[in-house]
Amino acid sequence: MTATAPIVRLDGVEKRFGAVRALSGVSLDLAAGECLGLVGHNGAGKSTLMNVLSGVLTPDAGRVSIAGQDVTGGYSTANAQAHGVRCVFQELSLCPNLTVAENARISHPAIRGFGWRGQARRLIGNKLGEVFPGHGISPNDLVGDLSIARRQMVEIARAFAVTDRPARVVILDEPTSSLDSVAAGLLLKHVRRFVEGGGTCVLISHLLGEILDTSDRIAVMRDGGVVALDAARAFDRRSLVAAMGSVTEAHGQADAAPKRGTAQPVVRARPLKQPDERELTAHAGEVVGLAGLSGQGQTELLVRIFDRAPGTDVAGPVALVAGDRQSDGVFPLWSIAENIAVGSLRRFKGKWLLDEAGITHFAEDWRRKIGIRTPDVGNPILSLSGGNQQKALFARALGSDARIVVMDDPMRGVDVGTKQEVYGMIREQAAKGRCFLWYTTETDELRNCDHVYVFREGIIAADLPRAEMTEEKVIHASFREDA
Amino acid sequence: MSGRLRQPWLWAWVGAAAVWLATAAFTGGTGSAQVLSAALTFGAFYVIVALGQMFVITLGPGNVDLSIPACMTLAGTVSMKVMGGAAAMLPVGLVLALLIGLGVGTVNFALIRLLRIPPIIATLSSSFIFQSAAIWYNRGLRVKPPEPLADFTTARIAGVPVIALAVAALAVAMHLLLTRTLYGRAVLAIGQNQRAAHLAGIRVERTRALTYLMCATLAGLCGFLLAGFSGGAALNMGEEYLLSSIAVVVIGGTSVAGGYSNVPGLWGAALFLFLLVTMLNTFGAGAGVRLVLTGLIIIGVIVAASGGRRRI
């Protein structure tokens, strides 16, 4: 693979956003037929680098060449596409008011003329079937009606679909963070097929396991530069984490004594379709996991608990951490401070007016506690990278006075180091009597839970106390026995 | 909120100043002070209704109150007739006008919430009912307002209309309500993303209800004061407030997409609108030309005011 000329060459690429230096002279080659894994903390510059490569951002300095041709001047998303560079962004870029097929047409202008709908339906339908067999998505579905996992699948299939232009380089920015383990596995298999067929793939992920398994080479980014670049087999989990510059992942889990028993639960909820007497219960001081494949009714139940809908019994105020931050979490016109404080405003009510200094102080406090990368909490929330926006949403919920915190797959796009810190915070706050309900599609995270409910097709399929919880049991319960 | 975004209200004020200067230049300065004084009075009426409309529009796409003119007319006619010109009845008339506003707001929100009718249709259709009620009740009679009310609406301190001062104070209060209270933050959050607002623990429907009630109540107040100012309530007194309430909000720099608004811009825009018409009158433009130019200039100011913000 070193014999051929690189298909993409980035040479000394620099990019600044105001005072923040997002990229400081990055040089990187991509060869045909390889998968490059890209890892680094939130705000290390991964997404910025990929935005430069896909033409969304123009570099302040440095050169971008594709297939030996210098394309730096006048490079844009349109001619990036013409050069065969496709990108699946972390913030999904589909139009919610259009159907799956219509969205496919947007990035494939070759589909035109009479019967374009049919062509688009076939294109996207076939690709979805190829990458995600059994996906259950119709090309006629309105994107806005799809779950975040299915929207992600459509976005991925659209990037791999080929009409008149080749798909030479496909960039996948956190593609698996919204997918459950089965869909993620299918995607990674497809990536290998694509790469073996001569394509080039850049895979960004915080899940080091999938990076190590799928990539040929791995680049580690820190503070806007590439700090390590080598063949994937030269790395292991520990050396990757060390290169990213964070403390080695701690695997010592809290071995707190089970808190169930005589105490009254603070949350009791039954899924609407539950055929038996099973119900979800959570006690003060407990971390309760909601597991299973994505979109099996976990989010719905969490929202019903948040709303105190009929069929739930909730004692105490509830705060929610959104996972789908664009549609459920972030207020895009507001500053970071306003976004954090919105969950706790009551506390800052003076006789007449809100205490603005108090709000800023509170947000600043949480910026430090949870490590949001920004010089000033007065900056707009959209100036933050995706993972840092997610941290602000955590700060909103953890900073509120809610005794119960429900979390809807909240670790999407959050890096390893931050995850460990947030796990620590959750355990610490649980020890003080807070109750957490935690929907996650990452089996690793369930180790932080005292009790796990596995969901399947909208109902609770298994009820596992910590002592009985194993990955096998969770996976076993996630699938129907006849399937 | 201030400082970090280019101030969106600035353009309305720049426009108002430019139009006033152009008029003054044309007339050689004669009557400029009177024009300004009249602008402050009429602008005050615009601002009262625009304050309510601004909160409604800030709630996000689809939210608008089209029943403002009908509400003004109903509140104006009923209160004038009940007072019958008697000064002693003044408090009764004021309370009645506010209660009518409150009632109109309640009906509007009930249509929106219970019958799930889009606000634009709900408030438009309810306004037919209120307008008809005003016609039925009043039968074209023009009852003179009580003396003290007429005096208040036309009084001046050192040449400045008292009503403009009162409405300026109201605007300051509403500015604080928008930026420094739980309610204001809730309105801004809902306008950006209603689902996220709900999931952040904001009581969305309660906030919306309060906003529609407040908007209609302010319209009731405006109808009461305007009837006092113009020597009685007329059935078409609210007519021009339908478009101008929205125009003032938008020219003032409030985002039509919701979640972003400001109060200072309302005053600038209200003065601009009045001074614009005055200028065209001074230039001797006919009614047709005046309307066309008014429309074009409003579009120009909106484009200039939005600058880079409206690119999406």
Automatic annotation (TrEMBL), chain A:
Residues 8-248, 252-482 form the ABC transporter domain. CDD domains: ABC_Carb_Monos_I. Keywords: ATP-binding, Nucleotide-binding, Repeat, Sugar transport, Transport. It comes from the Bacteria. One of its GO terms (molecular function) is ATP hydrolysis activity. It holds the Pfam family ABC_tran. This is ATP-binding cassette domain-containing protein.
TrEMBL record, chain B:
The chain crosses the membrane at residues 35-59, 90-112, 119-137, 157-178, 209-229, 241-259, 266-285, 291-308. GO terms for cellular component: plasma membrane. This is ABC transporter permease. Its main location: membrane. It comes from Halovulum marinum. InterPro entries: ABC_transp_permease. It comes from the Bacteria. The keyword Disulfide bond does not apply. One of its GO terms (molecular function) is transmembrane transporter activity.
